[in-house]
Write a structure and sequence with these properties.
Helix content: 40-55%
Order of helices and strands: EHEEHHHHEEHHHEHEHEHEHEHEHEEH
Strand order of the largest sheet: 8-7-9-6-10-11-12-13
Largest sheet: 8 strands, mixed
Number of helices: 15
Radius of gyration: 29 Å
Mean pLDDT: 77
Number of strands: 13
Length: 426
């Protein structure tokens, strides 16, 4: 007899895995619920473990012997509950200057009034019985695992009702803003290490705020350095606003910084695409060149050798269009290495998360890039900005918040986005 264990998100999934490997005659010997560990394990999904067996030889089986063997195997399974989790006393570190500055910044940042939110949530207990039940369960588990645990001469502090309500609201707020549950759980796991005697809800909030800021990283706008001209190529799917974004950035550098700018368009697929860019070029009194093949790109750039910035507008295409994708890679690779080149992947904040994942994967195969997010004014949830940043690891650059040229663009405002993710007002 062969025995193995199989895991799944549900009992049915785990059993199906057993039957897939052992066949329909697999003997299900035990089904065990595996509960997640960690301080905030109640917010994570339970999994199931199935112990299954398979007879190696089915013919001439002695039924009595088989039943005795089954009894022995059944007795060998450990049905004892998991051991209590022993959480060591957290190391209390002195507060750094940076942490003090972050806390001060949070207090001045018009963050959400969590005490008021807690009161509002408490009024909705009748509508949230399932959530309350889970919180009661969490409280009971915390009392069992922490309430009587001695570490040295002190007793580990049990989270207060206010802290638990705060965690619930924080968890719910991040999910409502469409932050991936994977990243929410990572943040909560880190918050767990910060909850200790003397740390108020405001201090916990400041800690979460700081961690989100660090996850976004420092935005990287265009920097003028090195030999002229600096070549800036803008790539991305159709309809994300590449041409308008180019016009906004070019206007800033032309009008505000008095830089010489020029345009090159490779978008010969879309009707009236060249006309749209030409209008912006005329307004800025800047030259524009249309390039029809990769063989023309370097000669077009050479024409603007004494310019500060050359903006390259590329054709948008579906990330599933392999021929156009290959053409884009060849064209970008063709740009002479003597030019300082940067590529910006323009994405719409309104695009679905699953599609964003496919898009960034495809463009990563083409070239390295920085992110520009557009259409932030057309959505109220910004979780995907964090999701894609953490998934792709690329640097952030700009964001756009409307169609007006050149006003509705800014360097990616990390603090503003983090405040909105936490339910505050920017």
């Amino acid at each position: 007899m062969t025995i193995n264990k199989f895991q799944g998100k549900t009992k049915e999934e785990a059993i199906q895995k057993a039957k897939t490997e052992f066949g329909e005659n697999a003997v299900i010997m035990n089904v065990k619920e595996v509960k997640p560990k960690g301080f905030f394990r109640i917010f994570k999904s339970t999994t199931y473990e199935v112990t299954a067996a398979m007879e190696e030889k089915e013919q001439n089986v002695n039924q009595t012997v088989a039943m005795q063997n089954m009894k022995k195997l059944h007795e060998s399974i450990n049905f004892a509950a998991d051991e209590k989790i022993q959480i060591p006393k957290p190391e209390i570190k002195s507060e750094t200057k940076e942490e003090t500055e972050v806390k001060t910044e949070v207090k001045q940042a018009h963050m959400p009034d969590f005490s008021q939110l807690i009161q509002q949530e408490q009024k909705k207990e009748s509508e949230e019985r399932q959530i309350e039940k889970r919180l009661d369960d969490l409280s009971n588990r915390l009392e069992e695992s922490l309430g009587h645990t001695q570490t040295g001469s002190e007793i580990v502090k049990e989270p207060s009702a206010e802290e638990l309500n705060f965690i619930r609201i924080l968890y719910s707020t991040l999910l409502k803003n469409e932050v991936s549950e994977k990243y929410v759980n990572q943040i909560l796991d880190e918050v767990e290490q910060f909850i200790r005697p003397g740390n108020s809800v405001d201090m916990i909030l400041a800690n979460v705020y700081q961690k989100l800021i660090l996850r976004f990283g420092q935005p990287k706008p265009i920097e003028l350095s090195g030999a002229k001209p600096k070549v800036l190529a803008f790539v991305g799917p159709t309809g994300v606003g590449k041409t308008t974004t180019i016009a906004k950035i070019a206007s800033k550098y032309k009008v505000d910084y008095n830089k010489k700018v020029a345009f090159i368009t490779l978008d010969t697929y879309r009707i009236a695409a060249t006309e749209q860019l030409q209008v912006y070029a005329n307004i800025l009194d800047a030259p524009m060149t249309i390039v029809y093949s990769k063989d023309e790109i370097n000669s077009a750039i050479e024409k603007y050798a004494d310019y500060d910035l050359v903006f390259v507008d590329t054709a948008g295409f579906s990330h599933k269009n392999t021929p156009q994708r290959d053409d884009m890679k060849k064209l970008l690779d063709e740009i002479d290495t003597k030019y300082s080149k940067e590529v910006y992947l323009v994405l719409s904040a309104t695009t679905k998360y699953k599609d964003l994942l496919e898009i960034v994967d495809i463009y990563h195969e083409i070239t390295d890039y920085k992110f520009i997010f557009t259409k932030l004014d057309e959505t109220t949830t910004y979780g995907n900005l964090l999701n894609i940043k953490l998934y792709a690891g690329a640097e952030l650059s700009y964001m756009t918040i409307g169609q007006n040229v050149p006003d509705d663009i800014a360097i990616f405002d990390t603090q503003k986005i983090v405040k909105q993710l936490l339910g505050g007002n920017a």
